[in-house]
Amino acid sequence: MTEDNRRAMLAGWGAESSSDLNIDQLREVCKAMKEKLNDKSDKWRKRVMASIFGYMKMTGREVDSDYVKSVACRSAGNYDNFNRIPPGKLQTVYYAFQDKQKVLKRTGELMSDDLDIIQFQN
Predict the structure, then answer these.
(1) Rg of the chain over CA atoms, in angstroms?
(2) CB under 8 Å, gap of 24 or more: what pairs does 44-48 form?
(3) How far apart are CA 16 and CA 45, in angstroms?
């Protein structure tokens, strides 16, 4: 969290420092921050699921959401629960499967070009 974000959050509670807040206010601040983090995590979880589903579809495999979650857990570092993967790891897994899709697509295009050349030569 940047200094500006921290100040903005505290200003919403009418305080300049977290020491100006009482226990109940601190709990509410923590709850609000946790909800914001969960929203971010949820967005990345959905992206990861879509990315892995897309890759599996490109490879011709029919999979269900439990399989996709298990792939994500292994890819993120052997997590036992999909919902416990932190946002940073989710981003890494997402971009890895996006890259896999791009490579698979490029490889398929190259193979198609090679087949066209071979057919032309025959």
Answers:
(1) 23
(2) 44/87, 44/90, 44/91, 44/94, 45/82, 45/83, 45/85, 45/90, 47/90, 47/94, 48/72, 48/90, 48/93, 48/94, 48/97
(3) 35
Structure-token pair, residue 43: 């967005």
Q: Indicate the helix (H) or strand (E) that contains 75.
A: helix 65-77
Instruction: Please check whether residue 68 is in contact with residue 53, taking contact to mean a CB–CB distance below 8 angstroms.
Output: yes
Q: Residue 16 phi/psi, 5° resolution?
A: -100, -20
Residue-wise pLDDT tens digits, 17-43: 888 888 888 888 888 777 776 677 888
Where do the structural domains in the chain lie, given as residue ranges? Answer: 3-121
Q: In angstroms, rounded to a whole number, what is the distance separating the alpha carbons of residues 2 and 40? A: 17
Question: Can you read off the two tokens belonging to residue 87?
Answer: 């946002």
pLDDT of residue 115: 54
Q: Which tens digit of pLDDT belongs to each residue from 67-122?
A: 999 999 999 998 999 988 988 999 999 999 999 999 888 887 666 655 556 655 65
